[in-house]
Amino acid sequence: MPNEADNDKHSIRKRDSISEEEYDNKVLDNAAASRVLANPLARFSNERLEQMGAEFAQNHGLAHLSEEFKKGALVAKDPTLFETLPQLTEQDKAVLRRELTHRWSQPLQLYYLVILCSLSAAVQGMDESVINGANLFFPAQIGIPQNSSRNQWLLGLVNGAPYLCCGVIGCWLSTPMNKYLGRRGTIFVAAFVSFIACIWQGLTNTWWHLFIARFILGFGIGPKSATVPVYAAECTPPAIRGALVMMWQMWTAFGIMIGTVMSLAFYHVPDSSGIVGLNWRLMLGSAGVPALIIMTQVFLCPESPRWLIAKGRYPDAYASILRLRHSSIQAARDLFYIDILLQEEEKIKRGRNMFVELFTVPRNRRATLASTVVMFMQQFCGVNVIAYYSSNIFSQANFTNIQALIASWGFGMLNWVFAIPAIYTIDTFGRRNLLLTTFPLMSIFLLMTGFAFFIPESSQNARIAVVALGIYLFTMAYSPGEGPVPFTYSAEAFPLYIRDTGMSYATSVLWFFNFIVAFTFPRLLQAFKPQGAFGWYAGWNAIGFVLVLLFLPETKALSLEELDMVFSVPTHVHAGYQLKALPYNIKKHIFRMKVKPLPPLYEHEGAIGEKTYAPAAGGH
Question: Where are the chain's structural domains?
């Protein structure tokens, strides 16, 4: 039975009447482009694929591997149908069979690469959280004691400096850096900048000098956050690729926890040799150590085969991917497919402005809106207020400094531990359901935290306990929901042909609003008091529930065709349906009432004969 990509190619090319050359010169519409990228080999016969594999090897300095690339091209068309290919030896089939039955059986070199990427994520978390403990000490020592509104704004500016750089410059630099330096080169430069900036932070004595050092740190955080997940995705087999995307968030949470550990470790370090504030200087500098480890190790990993092909370095690309696969047939299959995919992408993007199409094409615009919602809410749910300022918050609840740091470590630990269940729930419970369930909980727990500050100081232990409990419960709700969902959802929502541009935009939105949160909170805390500050973010979580309800379609386990259908539903139609579905779901799932089922919104959800929304081509 032909698959959907094959059907799409039939309709575009009309094999019997349009030549391959004519097809190659034809401009595809957006829906067709997305489906073509899902499987660009579907239109070719097995005989033609063998010929293409041999030509690929002959033309790119790999002639001695012609037979391997013939077989690799056949398998690349549909990796699940290798048992039906007589051209493969029994040894070839055994390797490919094991790939399906033992997906975590991979070469040690691949796991070494995964460990490096996980360490990079941990550095990311440390870069963000080491400032937490330092906030207890450096403001007074560098001339911005928190006794005026001006100084509170300056503290926010210093804290938010890296994210200002990321949102405005850093994330957009990742594309040219990757083009010219490669994935490893970009990671090396980003780690070097992180290392230098972390040490630099510890050598500052004025607020503006610390601001500059932390702004430069953004040139390490931004390109690294955009490159490492891409590097991991390009080097890993499809069977485990999704789990590795999730690991970025999990190990970033681990790094946030380690950042608070560093604050505890250096808390009692006394000043020496005329150095004032040695403890907070060591806290800020500690994130440079793992960055230095990344610098020394990254070039021991293979370069991304995709980047090497894009540079025309085919023998190097084959050598690279062979280090990451068990056999030559797997390496030939994946390398051939990468090359075909790059050719299709180049054809589709020729003469088009991808950034403009994010907003002018209706299907893309709805994906952009949904991605903006989840990225914006990851910041305005209030989690990074706690990640950056929990020590200050706990101090206002009458914790001692050391108690505040221990409580902050508890936040970091829970943030990491409760990110682990998301690996399982995100593909079973669903992205949208996770958000709709956790946003109300986060709102309630932030209100609980804020109201705890009304407890009289005479009941100090009760106040401390409720503040800590509220923050911990909030973290437990955040970690499986708004923690991992935004990056996973954004990567799925955009069509394949525009995904890189869409993710650059989504990442810049994330970092820009990260800066806004970090910049405004010190003044917000003083002006609104803790009760009002936590109430403010509790309100945003309630707004987040409404935004997800109205503008976020579910993307779990949908094919490309179904995703195009989902995002082609007009926004007002989707929002209107969800407003009707909300009371239905409350009655059915909360009050366990028997209610008449609603007709499904999408064609793929309904039974034959039911009236469902099936958009016309173009999805206007």
Answer: 107-301, 372-568
Which among 615, 610, 503, 601 has a CA at the least distance from the CA of 561? 615
The CATH number of 107-301 is: 1.20.1250.20
Contact residues for 274 (Cβ-Cβ < 8 A; gap 6+): none
CA angle 178, 182, 186 (to 5 degrees): 65
* 298 pLDDT more than 80: yes
> What does the alpha-carbon distance between residue 207 and residue 138 come to, in Å, rounded to a whole number?
9
Q: How far is CA 286 from CA 172, 197, 291, in A?
A: 27, 11, 10
**The pLDDT of residue 376 is above 80:** yes
Task: Please state, as a whole number, how many other Cβ atoms lie within 10 Å of the Cβ of residue 609.
Answer: 6
236-245, 368-377, 548-557, 574-583: segment of lowest average pLDDT: 236-245
Higher pLDDT, 535 or 238: 535
Q: Of the ranges 33-47, 189-203, 258-272, 526-540, which one carries the lowest mean pLDDT score?
A: 33-47
CB 409 within 8 A of CB 470: no
Mean pLDDT (the chain) is: 84
What is the DSSP annotation of 58-103?
HHTT-GGGHHHHHHHHHHHH-GGGGGG-TTS-HHHHHHHHHHHH-T
pLDDT in tens, 303-324: 999 899 989 999 999 999 999 9
Place of tokens 């953004």: 218
Going by C-alpha positions, the residue among 130, 385, 389, 127 that lies closest to residue 265 is: 130
Q: Cα separation of 280 and 405, whole Å?
A: 13
The answer to whether 174 touches 221, Cβ cutoff 8 Å, is no
The pair of three-digit structure tokens given for residue 440, joined into one six-digit string: 């109300």
CATH of 372-568, one of 2.40.10.270, 1.20.1250.20, 2.40.50.140, 3.30.365.10: 1.20.1250.20
Is the separation of the CB atoms in 449 and 470 below 8 Å? yes
Q: How many Cβ atoms are within 10 Å of 532's Cβ, its own excluded?
A: 13
Distance CA 596, CA 617 (A): 32
Closest C-alpha to 262, from 196, 194, 197, 198: 198
Range in 377-391, 409-423, 427-441, 581-595 the model is least confident about = 581-595
Q: Do 107-301 and 372-568 come out as alike in CATH topology?
A: yes
